[in-house]
Write a structure and sequence with these properties.
Protein name: NAD(P)H-quinone oxidoreductase subunit J, chloroplastic
Radius of gyration: 18 Å
Strand content: 25-35%
Largest sheet: 5 strands, mixed
CATH topology: Beta Polymerase, domain 2
Number of strands: 7
Catalytic activity: a plastoquinone + NADPH + (n+1) H(+)(in) = a plastoquinol + NADP(+) + n H(+)(out); a ubiquinone + NADH + 5 H(+)(in) = a ubiquinol + NAD(+) + 4 H(+)(out); a plastoquinone + NADH + (n+1) H(+)(in) = a plastoquinol + NAD(+) + n H(+)(out)
Subunit structure: NDH is composed of at least 16 different subunits, 5 of which are encoded in the nucleus.
Structural class: alpha/beta
Distance between the termini: 56 Å
Subcellular location: Mitochondrion inner membrane; Plastid, Chloroplast thylakoid membrane
CATH superfamily: NADH:ubiquinone oxidoreductase Nqo5 subunit
Number of domains: 1
Keywords: Chloroplast, Membrane, NAD, NADP, Plastid, Plastoquinone, Quinone, Thylakoid, Translocase, Transport
Amino acid sequence: MQGRLSAWLVKHGLVHRSLGFDYQGIETLQIKPEDWHSVAVILYVYGYNYLRSQCAYDVAPGGLLASVYHLTRLEYGVDQPEEVCIKVFAPRRNPKIPSVFWVWKSSNFQERESYDMLGILYDNHPRLKRILMPESWIGWPLRKDYIAPNFYEIQDAY
């Protein structure tokens, strides 16, 4: 099932894959990392002027990493603004995705958090460094295959 935005992208020859709709009826699209920056600029010009949130997750142990963008088209006098969810998947070995900081400034700390927790490198981000963990931390704590250093389970708490 193709949504309104997906049909518009097809009409203009922009490569993507429709992932259907979520439980709220919000269209979800998959964009390749190499196409993401140009599609982001086009979406901004098309009217998606608000980045509601950006997050990332580990799809499966040893599998892909995903960066997720929730975009909203804010217009004066519109009660139910259009929304879209964009997913960009990156390989675990070299997880590089273009940063959209220069399109939506609000992605700054959100992309930094995704880098800090999952190790996704956002190309052209102005200050991509750890934000939650100390700079000396080794590894990416939210990856499913992460092993915590010096972790000892308490057997008897009493």
